[in-house]
Specification:
single chain, 295 residues, alpha/beta, Rossmann fold, 5-stranded mixed sheet, 12 helices
Length: 295
């Protein structure tokens, strides 16, 4: 199975050849994976070295000249280290860019806290009108890249190592209905879907699948809402999507629960699967939390 990052890069390389307005700016990470891009047209492909803020600034320059820039690096290196540049160069100037990251929240768990970033999506929410995409499989990353790369918005696409078993026919900005029930509504985000479906087996709950978390599909959420409890299972800090869901639900009286990465420094080392178990985000941990939420 091809990894999400690999597919996203392959898709960008194809778009780069087909669309002369696509530009790629890197900061050393994954340069070898982008070799076809550099070989095809080095005038539209730049590696600035280990200077992520510069990467964002150069991409903004391309955008000002009418290009559709794509930048890529490890999650904390851009979502945290270069957040101010994203805010000013793209958010303030209302320019478009596709930011593709790898490594959130703790895919590089063996590298320690410099490579952890469970707060990336919450950080990007501080830039108004940012589009935030969280695919759960490689084919979904392909579809979301194609749907957004040239739309003129600051778009953040988060790839991870752990994927769902099968891709879904996702659409930008839309929730998918995976299962219908009556007691509660569970929103599973990106790569959390399969484990959420496993965790809720035998439970009388509706399960919705989100790969676009901004803009959020309020229409489908309200139409499919079941019960008085809404539980979001998110692959980043627990509560990251609380504001989005509250806004989407308006004045509907529900109890909102968040299942995600605990808000504490991660001091354990290991694979993503090992850290999921430690942090209560494997199937058993998710089931315990959902069962506790709905009683």
């Amino acid at each position: 199975m091809i990894a999400m990052r690999g597919q996203a890069i392959d898709t960008v390389a194809e778009l780069f050849e087909d669309d002369p307005r696509v530009a790629v700016v890197l900061a050393e990470i994954s340069v070898d994976r982008f070799n076809p891009v550099f070989a095809h047209d080095p005038a539209r492909a730049v590696n600035v070295g280990i200077m992520e803020q510069t990467m964002v600034g150069v991409a903004a320059g391309y955008a000002l000249e009418g290009f559709h820039p794509v930048i890529h690096t490890i999650t904390p290196f851009v979502a945290e280290r270069a957040l101010e540049q994203l805010k000013l160069d793209f958010g303030h100037q209302q320019l478009g860019v596709l930011v593709i990251t790898v490594g959130g929240s703790y895919d590089y768990g063996s590298e320690g806290p410099t490579h952890h970033s469970p707060g990336d999506v919450q950080a990007l929410f501080t830039i108004p009108a940012t589009e935030i995409l969280v695919p759960g499989a490689a084919a979904e990353a392909d579809r979301l890249v194609r749907a957004t790369y040239a739309n003129g918005h600051l778009t953040y696409l988060r790839t991870q190592l752990v994927t769902n078993r099968e891709p879904r026919d996702v659409e930008f900005g839309r929730l998918l209905v995976e299962r219908r029930g009556t007691r509660a509504t569970v929103v599973a985000v990106g790569p959390m879907l399969d484990r959420t479906l496993d965790a809720t087996a035998g439970m009388d709950v509706t399960v919705l699948y989100a790969t676009t978390v901004s803009p959020f599909d309020a229409e489908t959420l309200n139409r499919e809402l079941a019960g008085d409890d809404v539980i979001v299972v998110e692959p980043f800090y627990a509560g990251t999507l609380a504001g989005v869901l509250s806004e989407a639900l308006g004045d509907r009286p529900v109890r909102l629960h968040a299942v995600g990465v605990p808000r504490a420094m991660i001091r354990d080392y290991g694979t993503p699967e090992q850290l999921d178990h430690v942090l209560g985000l494997d199937g058993a941990g998710i089931r315990r939390q959902i069962a506790s939420a709905i009683g």
